[in-house]
UniProtKB/TrEMBL annotation, chain A:
The lineage of its organism: Eukaryota, Metazoa, Chordata, Craniata, Vertebrata. Residues 316-335 are annotated as: Disordered. GO terms for cellular component: nucleolus. WD repeats lie at residues 118-159, 244-285. Ribosome biogenesis factor. Involved in nucleolar processing of pre-18S ribosomal RNA. Required for optimal pre-ribosomal RNA transcription by RNA polymerase I. Part of the small subunit (SSU) processome, first precursor of the small eukaryotic ribosomal subunit. During the assembly of the SSU processome in the nucleolus, many ribosome biogenesis factors, an RNA chaperone and ribosomal proteins associate with the nascent pre-rRNA and work in concert to generate RNA folding, modifications, rearrangements and cleavage as well as targeted degradation of pre-ribosomal RNA by the RNA exosome. The keyword rRNA processing applies. This is U3 small nucleolar RNA-associated protein 15 homolog. The gene is utp15. Transmembrane segments: none annotated. Keywords: Nucleus, Repeat, rRNA processing, WD repeat.
From TrEMBL, chain B:
The keyword GTP-binding does not apply. PROSITE patterns: WD_REPEATS_2, WD_REPEATS_REGION. Residues 308-629 form the WD repeat-containing protein 75 second beta-propeller domain. Coiled coil: none annotated. GO terms for cellular component: small-subunit processome. WD repeats lie at residues 53-95, 167-198, 212-243. InterPro entries: Beta-prop_WDR75_2nd (IPR057644), Quinoprotein_ADH-like_sf (IPR011047), WD40/YVTN_repeat-like_dom_sf (IPR015943), WD40_repeat_dom_sf (IPR036322), WD40_rpt (IPR001680), WDR75 (IPR053826). This is WD repeat-containing protein 75 second beta-propeller domain-containing protein.
Length: 527, 740
């Protein structure tokens, strides 16, 4: 006596993005905190020392936020015009910022007024940074020059006038105090060595350069400009390694995750993309409500801070381990483990007589009915609202099984208005789903056959039939259009093999055939 | 004397065990059933075959225990004999020949007084339609719409007829009959699924019957338990129904027994029930309604669509058996090893219901992968599933890896794996379909967490023609696909079309590459009765011959190819090497009928043989499945799909063999090597005598079947010792034997 084989529920491939380790990692952030700023947020920089405050440059102010507070713990407001590029020194004590009025200001994080003012540039300064020895500042300006300043003496050490357009970004080496790199709107990225007074390496980005980033090892340089993100190998004289084009608007900001395994790029197209740094494939994508100007990642990826053109600062904090567990533990409390092992771990003694107990097989509700050949009841259980909405594939599988047994007609017949409208509702919801069309066309035809005589008696059913008709006509139009597109594509790809032109025709043919029948019966309704 | 190798065709098993109802011995330890030309004795507890009772020369049509000695059994056969056996030791005790009885076509019932009497002249050929009543007092027989009860003591019979169709349009035709062991009650089964219990039938007018109804179609078999408390019935629903006698509302069910029930029997002590099923299976059920053992023979479906395959791992023969299953059948032990459930769906027992069928199957060369195609044809819609199964070492069975629904838009015509030359290269599966495409499927690591699964690698077509068969070369580098008249050769590495070969007119029917040293040859047969051999190095036709080849297959272990040709309805086998024009072996008239499927099965150990004509059988055996009728007599005991194997027997060259085996060669043999003439003469005469008696018995039997319809093909022996009917029958037979 074989056991009953339950109905096979077809597993359909999941649509949408695949769940990978990266998806799980980058989804593990809380809902963003949004803080309104006075203007577009042009720069976000994290302090390299705990508690990892971050400086937000927006319009004429620089605010410093703590890791948890939503109010700024400090504000620098003594700018005459728009401030740019507020950055911390490696010890987190000093902060430097450029300004539209061409003056570079140096602040003590604890104080309020500027410690030093470096004057010499003639136009707005968009790039300011400390060198790794902490005593010098590199600045780059719209007057095409970049300068090196000495902090203690507040003097200008050197001026480099090699760029031929605005200098908007740059980065200093963390390992060597003499090296810094600047990117300019003249499409070039230049590596300067303080000891030689001129650039030692030039790379052509072919787009106005918006952002630069050095890997922690400083062997690789990433530049962003236009729609492109390019990676350069500095150890091979600036040889281009990869060119990435995943954004469809200008890339404005670059950032590395905690261990340098992932590269993040933010763009005016409102997306932040996460790349794997070994194969440079996009592994995750964040959407933001407005164009992104600045992006920063806290150490250990604790939070993602994004500044946008609509002057909103968005902060996402990582979920703590307990919180990420919370989502699962909120589910229904299950009986304790002890309950299941009760009596199972009893070791029988030598003289004990063992009486075997037959394991009761568990069957789903619809399978229980199918086992008893109660076809109408099986269909009823499969059409229960939860199954119908959440797991339409179960309902479809039961319909298919009934059809296989040749009893689908019996199961569909003899329904009252309410039950019939439930079935029709399900058909309306799922008939044009490409996964279910093949199966569901049969019951739809059968319903029309069975209930043809009572059409016109119930307004509810008639309305649903008309909706079904409308739906099918629309679907038919889609299919026709798709076939047209397919035809166009075929002519385009005439030289290659017609591999991709197989799937649709079968379904559309079926739908066509069905709609023809449908139209016949619809005319009856109208009559 | 030299050892002589002789090639002959032998029947290797797979015979029906569900032809007639089995018999259980008195102690319930052994079960006897008729199986082809022998009677098999099974143990009811271990399911093993204990003995074969072999002596009959034709299909055994009935087995019954000897009432006077519970260790002996009678068997009857189409060869016209009844034999008495000791079944515990498998010894033949006695043989009776049936003789022709001249029946006058009149209504009188007594022909030969005292010894042989005809009691009922119009009987059904189905043994289930005749039953003895309580203590042998009466005999019930049904045919068509009539029940006839013959009272042996009163020597009179009562006939009861039913109307052709009752009110609801059901068929009232009788299908089986059984009698209550202690009560005057006859139970009859009908084609509409009703069971009627007849009482008071000794009166012609005042008889009554009550009706039991559960079955929805024909009641296949009925049986009372020895005490008469329960009535067992079974039918096509494959549910054993147990009715309480005199309590009509109470019944127990034993559902899902696997296939339609054809016979139900009860052991003499009532502890065991057996049900015989249409899929060549006997189920033994303890009276606690638990299945205790299953004896399963080779399942023969209506058609062997999957072809015969050899599982490279277990060397078992694989073909489709039960609906939706693949069966693995051990050729050495003539035993079904296991069934692999391919479709994994609840089987609904209902006639005229379209089921999923396994239509194609293929193994890769190491046996790690099995590909199956299942098909459901419902009206115009075709549902196809391609399933790939991986062998799991832990469970020692195949586990479903990938299901591809709708792999093609039309029927799949061929399925083959590429031979893996080493373990590194991935195997490729190629399927060709009537939709005009062939597709290559490859194992690909899909995601990290799910493991490898199969996906489509290439879709090929050739001028919109329909591909019919595909075949890989021995090293797996070339794929040959035949498109009607054209054979296309593709590179399996790059899927480039390398060359096309054609030899019109006629579509290509079979295609296979040569093996080993002949791997440069590609052989094909065409519908215009041509056997073609192409040389792939020159891309030209090497040779061709006009021959009606029905089947062409290559031996995987040698260069040899076998071709089956059905010339003038007689089957011939040719074994040849593609490189040599002369066949190595050819035998005409192997068997009658068409060979449907054949396969080379590797031997477990290689034979050492020097004879040139039989060397091709050293490494493997050739099995083929024929569709021939064993006997065309009126009894209708056709035996389709007998599994027949050709094997080589080593017989010492004795004078006896010389005489009996090759009588004509006696004249050619030099006189000095022969034994003395006087010695030979007596043997020669004796051999002739035996053959004459053999012939006689057969002719007599055929005569008896003509005149006597087929009452004896399934005879019934009643439990009471002094049953005059049977005794008369035997005495008559013995007397006739003496006259001979």
């Amino acid at each position: 006596m074989a056991s009953f084989k339950p109905t096979k529920i077809h597993v359909y491939p999941k649509l949408g993005e695949k769940v990978t380790q990266d998806t799980l990692y980058w989804k593990n952030y809380k809902a963003p905190i949004q803080i309104k700023q006075f203007g577009a947020v042009s720069n976000v920089a994290f302090s390299p020392v705990a508690p990892y405050n971050f400086a937000v440059t927006a319009f004429t102010r620089i605010h410093i936020y703590g890791p948890f507070s939503q109010e700024p713990i400090k504000s620098f407001t003594r700018f005459k015009d728009t401030a740019y590029s507020g950055r911390f020194r490696s010890d987190g004590q000093l902060l430097v910022a450029g300004c539209e009025d061409s003056v570079v200001r140096l602040f003590d994080v604890g104080g309020k007024t500027a410690l030093r003012m470096f004057k010499g540039h003639t136009k707005a300064v968009h790039l300011t940074d400390f060198t790794s020895d902490r005593y010098q500042i590199v600045t780059g300006s719209d007057d095409y020059s970049c300068r090196l300043w000495d902090i203690p003496n507040a003097t200008e050490l050197n001026t480099y006038r090699e760029h031929t357009d605005y200098i908007r970004c740059g980065v200093t080496s963390k390992l060597n105090r003499d090296l810094f790199i600047t990117g300019s709107y003249d499409h070039t990225v230049k590596l300067f060595d303080v000891r030689t007074d001129k650039s030692v390496m030039t790379m052509d980005h072919e787009q106005p350069v918006e952002s630069l980033l050095l890997y922690p090892s400083e062997g690789l340089l990433v530049s962003a400009g236009g729609r492109f993100v390019k990676v350069w190998d500095l150890l091979k004289q600036g040889q281009p390694l990869v060119s990435l084009r995943n954004h469809h608007k200008t890339v404005t900001c670059l950032c590395l995750s905690k261990n340098g395994e992932r590269l993040l790029s933010a763009s005016l197209d409102r997306h932040v993309k996460v790349y794997n740094t070994t194969n440079y494939k996009v592994v995750h994508n964040f959407d933001y409500p407005a164009s992104i100007l600045s992006l920063a990642l806290a150490p250990y990826d604790e939070s993602i801070v994004v500044g946008m053109t609509n002057s909103v600062l968005s902060i996402k904090h990582k979920k703590s381990p307990s919180e990420s567990k919370d989502s699962t533990s909120q589910q229904r409390r299950r009986p304790s483990y002890r309950m299941f092992v009760k009596g199972k771990n009893y070791i029988p003694k030598q003289d004990d007589f063992l009486v075997g107990k037959q394991v009761k097989e568990h069957l789903a509700k619809h399978d229980k009915q199918l086992k008893k050949f109660n076809v109408s009841k099986a269909l009823d259980t499969a059409l229960e609202s939860w199954t119908r909405r959440r797991k339409p594939e179960v309902t479809v599988a039961v319909i298919k099984e009934l059809n296989r047994r040749g009893t689908l007609k019996n199961a569909l017949a003899g329904r009252d208005e309410q039950e019939l409208s439930r079935i029709l509702n399900f058909l309306i919801g799922n008939l044009v789903d490409a996964r279910f069309t093949l199966v569901l066309v049969t019951p739809a035809e059968m319903i029309l056959d069975i209930y043809r005589s009572i059409i016109g008696q119930s307004p509810v059913i008639d309305r649903q039939l008309l909706r079904l008709h409308e739906l099918l006509e629309r679907e038919l139009d889609y299919q026709r259009e798709l076939l047209e597109v397919l035809g166009m594509l075929d002519t385009l790809f005439a030289s290659s093999l017609p591999r991709n032109a197989v799937e649709c025709s079968g379904i559309s043919g079926l739908v066509l055939r069905f709609v023809e029948r449908e139209q016949c019966s619809e005319t009856e309704i109208y009559q | 004397m030299v050892e002589h190798a002789d090639i002959r065709v032998v029947h290797r098993g797979g015979s029906k065990i569900n032809f007639r109802a089995p018999v259980i011995s008195d102690d319930s330890r052994l079960l006897l059933c008729a199986s082809g030309e022998c009677v098999k004795v099974y143990s009811t507890s271990t399911e093993e075959c204990v003995h074969h009772l072999r002596a009959h020369t034709d299909v055994v049509t009935g087995v019954v225990l000897r009432p006077s000695n519970h260790l002996q059994v009678y068997s009857c056969s189409m060869d016209g004999t009844i034999r008495l056996w000791d079944f515990t030791d498998a010894i033949l005790i006695k043989m009776f020949h049936l003789v022709a009885v001249h029946l006058q076509q009149s209504t009188e019932q007594l022909v030969e007084a005292r010894e042989l009497s005809v009691v009922i002249s119009h009987v059904s050929s189905n043994p289930a339609a005749i039953a003895f009543g309580r203590a042998g007092e009466y005999l019930a027989s049904t045919k068509g719409l009539q029940l006839e009860v013959f009272f042996l003591k009163k020597q009179k019979s009562n006939r009861f007829s039913l109307k052709e169709e009752n009110k609801k349009g059901r068929k009232n035709t009788f299908s089986c009959v059984t009698c209550h062991p202690t009560d005057d009650c006859i139970a009859t089964g009908h084609e509409d699924g009703q069971i009627r219990l007849w009482r008071n039938f000794s009166h012609k007018k005042e008889y009554t019957y009550s009706t039991l109804h559960w079955h929805h179609t024909t009641v296949g078999s009925l049986c009372f338990t020895p005490e008469g408390t329960n009535l067992l019935s079974g039918g096509v629903e494959s549910v054993l129904v147990q009715w309480r006698y005199n309590q009509d509302t109470q019944r127990d069910f034993l559902p899902r027994l696997g296939a339609a029930i054809t016979h139900v029997t009860v052991s003499p002590d009532g502890t065991l029930f057996t049900t015989t099923h249409s899929d060549n299976k006997i189920t033994i059920i303890r009276s606690g309604a638990k299945v205790s053992a299953v004896i399963q023979g080779l399942v023969k479906g209506e058609s062997i669509e999957t072809d015969l395959l050899i599982d490279p791992r277990s060397k078992a023969l694989v073909m489709n058996g039960k609906p939706g299953h693949l069966q693995f059948y051990s050729l050495q032990r003539d035993k079904l090893m296991y069934n692999l459930d391919i479709v994994q769906q609840e089987y609904i027992y209902q006639s005229d219901l379209q089921q999923f069928e396994v239509v194609k199957a293929a193994f890769n060369s190491s046996g790690n992968w099995l590909a199956t195609v299942e098909r459901e044809q419902k009206d115009a819609e075709l549902e196809l599933n391609l399933k790939l199964w991986a062998f799991d070492d832990q469970t020692q069975s195949f586990v479903l890896n990938t299901t591809i629904s709708a792999p093609h838009e039309n029927r799949i015509t061929a399925l083959c794996f590429s031979p893996a030359t080493d373990s590194q290269t991935t195997t490729v599966l190629v399927s060709s379909s009537k939709d005009g495409h062939f597709k290559a499927w490859q194992l690909a690591a899909h995601t990290e967490d799910e493991g490898p699964c199969w996906s489509c690698d290439f879709v090929g077509a050739y001028h919109g023609l329909v591909p019919s068969c595909c075949c890989f070369s021995a090293d797996g580098s070339l794929l040959a696909v035949s498109f009607q008249e054209v054979v296309t050769v593709w590179s399996s590495a790059s899927w480039e079309l390398l060359t096309t070969l054609s030899q019109p007119p006629g579509d290509i029917r079979d295609l296979c590459f040569g093996q080993l040293s002949c791997s440069k040859y590609l052989l094909g047969t065409s519908t215009s009765n041509l056997l073609l051999c192409w040389n792939l190095l020159t891309c030209s036709l090497e040779w061709s011959t006009s021959m009606d080849i029905s089947l062409l297959l290559a031996d995987p272990l040698s260069e040899n190819m076998a071709a089956f040709s059905s010339f003038s309805s007689l089957l011939s086998v040719f074994v040849f090497k593609p490189s040599e024009p002369r066949p190595i072996f050819s035998q005409k008239a192997v068997c009658s009928g068409k060979v449907m499927r054949a396969v080379f099965a590797p031997r477990e150990e290689m034979l050492e043989s020097c004879e040139e004509s039989s060397q091709w059988l050293n490494r493997c055996q050739l099995y083929f499945l024929s569709q021939h009728m064993v006997n065309s007599s009126a009894a209708g005991s056709a035996q389709p799909n007998a599994l027949i194997g050709s094997h080589q027997s080593l017989v010492a060259m004795t004078p006896f063999h010389l005489l009996l085996g090759k009588r004509p060669s006696l004249l050619q043999t030099p006189a000095h090597v022969l034994p003395s003439t006087s010695y030979l003469c007596s043997m020669f005469v004796r051999s002739l005598l035996i053959s004459v008696t053999d012939n006689r018995s057969v002719t007599q039997y055929s005569y008896s079947t003509n005149t006597h319809s087929s009452a004896f093909t399934g005879f019934i022996l009643h439990g009471s010792q002094n049953c005059p009917f049977v005794v008369n029958l035997f005495s008559g037979a013995e007397r006739c034997l003496r006259k001979l």
